[in-house]
Amino acid sequence: MDIQKIREDFPILSRTVYGKPLVYLDNGATTQKPRMVVDSLVNEYYSVNANVHRGVHYLSQQATELHEASREAVRRFINARGVSEIVFTRGTTESVNLLASSFGEEFMGEGDEVIVSVMEHHSNIVPWQLLATRKGIRLKVIPMNDRGELLLDEYEKLFTERTKIVSVTQVSNVLGTVNPIKEMVRVAHAHNVPFMVDAAQSVPHMKVDVQELDADFLVFSAHKMYGPTGVGVLYGKEEWLDRLPPYQGGGEMIQHVSFEKTTFNELPFKFEAGTPDYIGTTGLAKAIDYMNAVGMERIAAHESELTAYALERLRAIPDMRMFGEAAERGAVISFLVGNIHHFDLGTLLDRLGIAVRTGHHCAQPLMQRLGVEGTVRASFALYNTKEEVDALVAGIERVRRMF
Ligand code: PMP
Description:
The chain has helices at residues 3-8, 35-47, 58-78, 92-107, 126-135, 152-157, 181-190, 210-213, 238-241, 278-294, 296-315, 342-351, 364-370, 386-402; strands at residues 16-17, 20-21, 23-24, 86-89, 113-117, 138-142, 163-169, 195-198, 217-221, 232-236, 254-257, 262-264, 320-323, 332-337, 354-355, 357-359, 375-379. It is of the alpha/beta class and 403 residues long. Helix 8 (210-213) links the parallel strand 8 (195-198) and strand 9 (217-221). Helix 3 packs across helix 10. It binds 4'-deoxy-4'-aminopyridoxal-5'-phosphate (PMP). 4'-deoxy-4'-aminopyridoxal-5'-phosphate binds at residues 28-29, 91-93, 121, 123-124, 169, 173, 198, 200-201, 221, 362.
């Protein structure tokens, strides 16, 4: 992999902040975008733009073709059986809300249970909690060990006859833990319970195959995988999506409307009310093209090497405390150094041009489990280099000397 050549595809990586070269290590929050993704947005606005699905005219048909080709690109990317299983949303958060709302309405009642894990992002906790308030359902939480690995024995014990769905992240956005989703899905299915995978932090980094995982639902955001903001995906097995009621009402999601009775459109349009971000979906397809051109295996290998290097170098820093030591881990490292507040460390690193995340990372229950208020998080993407890891380490050393 020629990293320098790859970096040239991302114009922002050559900018400076505070007169220092940008070292962008906040990829877990959002990745930067290659030129071909941004160009596709501009080109489509300039030369194709028209509303999709309901126009007889040339541009509308061309825009529709692009939009639906993007659905096919997503289908292939996660190996879904059909495009009817790919619902476009605004992002992971909206995908989870859609599922919690529709699934909850159809299949859950007072006293029913959803299993989540202690390392979930708020967007895979709060939608279920809203349902808890509305419908009286209960959340059950899979605990973890001190290395940040879910306790599978405890997971099995959480199932009761009231368990209706399991919803767990594939990769923790704080600990980097890669959860054994395939095995966890198997356990859920043995109890006749469907499984939703939060793949926000996995699809940018590894090959994800919904059929291999046997996931019933899987959600992710384009902006964390080199695509544009405002677009996301809800994958659902057709037999499940067929049985779920619509989430929002409006144009596009209907077949026929009268004041007496409205019938809904076929899948996946039943879940896509209103004008979709058809320009953004083209951008997502371009991001998938980009990742495929580099190669998912090569991306995974590069990031794994980089993470191993970063772990080794960071561990050598005195007073370093790392959070997350799972055997299977992704390109995310959370840490604290001595008594330095995470916010101070992040702010001072920023002054050196190094962008990291600080705070609770939208995972406050996990912070409680770790016994901290927040951490500093460095998260890598395919364009990061060992030199950038060296810059991070040198930056931390410098801040340490100041305290
Ligand atoms: N789940 C996980 C694991 C995440 O890391 C994030 C983003 N930090 C989300 C869900 C939410 O994604 P979005 O903000 O794009 O909806």
